[in-house]
Here is the input.
Amino acid sequence: MMLEKIQQSMQSPIMKALMFIIIVFFIGAGYFGANMFGGDPEQIAEVEGVSISGQTVQRRIDNMRQRDGAEFEKRYPTDASREQLRASIAQQLINQEVVNAGIAKAGMTASEQQVKQWIRTFEPFQLGGEYSSGQAREFLRANGWSEEYLNEYAQERIAAEQLQSGLNSSGFALDYEVETLYRLQEQTRDVRVLRVPVSSFSDDVSLDDSEIQSYYDKNKSRFMQPEQIDLKYVRLSADELIEAKKAEVTEEDIQAYYEQQKSSYSETGEIQVAHILIDNSVDGAEAKAEELLQQIKEGADFGALAKEHSSDTFSGENGGQLDWVDAVEQSDSSAGTGWAPEFEKAALALENQGDVTEVVETDFGFHIIKLLERREGETTPLADVRDEIVTKLATDLADEEFYSKESKLDEVLFEYGDDIEEFAQQAGLDVQETGMFSRESATGVAAEPALLEKAFSAQVIDSQQVSDKIVLSGKDIVYVTAQNYKAESVKPLEDVKPQIVATLTKEKAAKDAEAFANKVLEAMESGESVDDLIAEQELDWQENSALKRRDSGMDFALVSAAYQMSAPNGDEAARSVKPLFNGDYAVIELKAVNYPDVASMDEATKAQLQQTAKSLSVQAETSGVIEDFRNTVEVTQ
Here is the structure.
């Protein structure tokens, strides 16, 4: 019903789409920014009780920056462009919650079967392209989701997908809309553009101390110095001890360990045999086995006899052949071959390929065993594992010393806790110093999360005592005491003066650049020559008699600015000053807009524009749905 209502109310999908784009532009330009970002700085909006925070917006931006790298900085080089991005993302999040709430209020829901199917295809629950209950449980645990929340989330997503599917299927494109898009897309413009760089005016900017002082006084919040601390610390690390202990490991130690653990460095030999089994259920089983053995001794084919007579039909089909096994007897330290003890002993006694045992009796019956092949084991040379052994022996020594010194430090902390130098001496350790650092600038040991959390606690800041043990990892501990502390404060003017000068210089240069651009524009509007004026700044016009939207011959910022202008009336050129993305300005003279002949449009272009027109139609309908939902959903901004 809602889609029908929207469709009936639409007079032109393209016009609706264009209006939607204009609205998004104004949002991006910050026209609604005061309402959006006022009040609680952590909350930018609330939709039916669901809070949308500035942190959520910032996370989206951070993800974009991480994903796009340098391209992000090129796309959003100025504070203004980043504020536009922030506002655009905020509005997207608000619209998303408006749709969710609108769907809920409209009673749109999903069946239990649909929810189950959605959950089974939910990407985070997939493992190797298939649903995994273990993967699902881990995802729910890691994200703190309950099963109830998962079901609610699934119902929301299903309803939203169904709504979007309905919008997509209702999109359409009329011929005149396709023709309009073609004229807009393929138009060219006759322009003359003068770029006025802000940098051209920077050298002429002069600042006095009062301006710098005034800016500093009004913007002190921008120049805050976070709290900082300098720590003395004693660190006991098993990893550091290991490196020191390696020098204590002797060649005798290495050789002795290698001999003791030689089996660890040896690959067990393997054996493969074939057998014929006559099990106990066969009448005269032992006699039959002896008869077969005699035939083998007289030259009969072992494999053929196994296939015809062996009670082990599985191996018999393959000439009695069994799988490869380790050529070692069962013992306390080895599972052996896995064969029956009598079978194992007889098989391992075979030495040469083709050798055959006498008849061997086991609980299964009577066997004749033939050696097919042996693979001898290999022992890794000491030289190849020497470094590994040194590290192992050093680690054992380091662990022993670590626990001994850790125990000693725990024991003397109370007695020597007021003097970190004396405290360290009791365990033969050195006192080190971090230097001043803040939470943001911490490096090395200071950046360890456990230490960083403790460093700015009152227990450390307000005490001269050695702290309790801070565990950085299983065998890495540290004790600290504050050497110096500086509370959060405003940075001195002298420290931030270069930053202020750069900011004010850029601001003044931008104003001068804008004023110059407007001066050029005014002279042109008055019919005066601007050649001398432009020459003074060593600037040049750029001309293009058929500028396209995607013209690589002119900077994108200039092309974009030229295409923001309306077509001139009559023969008189349209002129304007436009700000560019990077802060520069441009004087633009638009002489004419040239539209293509619609009859020249080929079928491929027409198909592409039909799809574009359909997408704009869907976009317009989506805008209408959001607006319709807004009439029933409570949104606070």
